[in-house]
Amino acid sequence: MLPALDYDKWSETKDTLHLFLQIIGKIRLKAHPKQNHWWHVTLYPSVRGLTTGRIPHGADSFEILYDMLDHQIIVSCNDGTSEQFDVAGLAVAAFYNTLFQVLKGLGIEVKIVVKPYENKSTVPFPQDTALRAYDKQAVTDFWKAICAIANIFERFRGRFTGKQTPVHLYWHSFDLVSTRFSGRAHRLEGGTNSDREAYSHEVISVGFWPGDDTFSKAAFYGYAYPEPAGMNGIPLQPVEAEWIEKNGGALAILTYDDMRLSDDPSAALLKFLESVYQGAAAKAGWPMQDLTHAYAE
């Protein structure tokens, strides 16, 4: 059975983990060549946790792995060198300083903006010396959930032949995402530069996030940009799924527990993902037949 992710029990650990991942993500943001829709900033599920993947560094490359089984950061380079350190019990400042000392020792120089991004903490990383919660089992359970969910997202991705994202984790919002594109441009008016870069084309996006102070349940979600008329009237599956209003738009929601405790969690999640995509794509006039992989599961 998938692990429980009780928000109230692990929220303080989640906040610590989120800040650690923001530091790692900001390193990838600065060091990796820019890609469209900010795909160069994300992290990826691995067999032991979350990774930056290979980051180019001159003629060489490096990778940062957050090992969520042994609770270590492992920095590896393509010349065979690597360094690691334990994370449990570290303040944010200690995590930041240790990681950058490791990078410097490996000959990697990266400068990042040291403030958390869109986070309830506004303390610069080097100044955040407060003791923070770190429940090892809660972090491992989160990784186990992410790993299982990523497998299901990959099956969902296999059904689509158009442009789509990898299954990746956006560290600023702390959500695991898979996004499909219709192929038609639709530039966002207003918003920030990053918003306009992310929403330059029609998309239908699904994801998973572990909850926050405004929605204290781990949940799956789905939405469309631009939102077609009548989006919140699309029938969702399974029956536990519902539409809510979020940031002025319609957001499909299936809680993690409703999926986890169902008779067939994988099937329940796939039904949810498909009901969001099929309904939104039909209403938005996507060329659905042309974008369907005929030989997928």
Tell me what you see in this structure:
The chain is an alpha+beta fold. It folds into two domains: 7-127; 136-284, no CATH class. It is built from six helices and twelve strands. The chain has helices at 7-31, 92-105, 136-157, 193-198, 256-260, 265-284, and strands spanning 44-45, 49-51, 55-57, 60-67, 72-77, 82-86, 168-170, 175-185, 201-209, 219-225, 242-246, 249-255. Strands 1, 2, 3, 4, 5 and 6 form a six-stranded antiparallel β-sheet that branches. A hairpin with a 2-residue loop joins strand 3 (55-57) and strand 4. Helix 3 (136-157) crosses helix 6 (265-284). It is globular, with a radius of gyration of 19 Å. The chain starts with 6 loop residues before the first helix and ends in a 13-residue tail after the last helix. The mean pLDDT is 95.
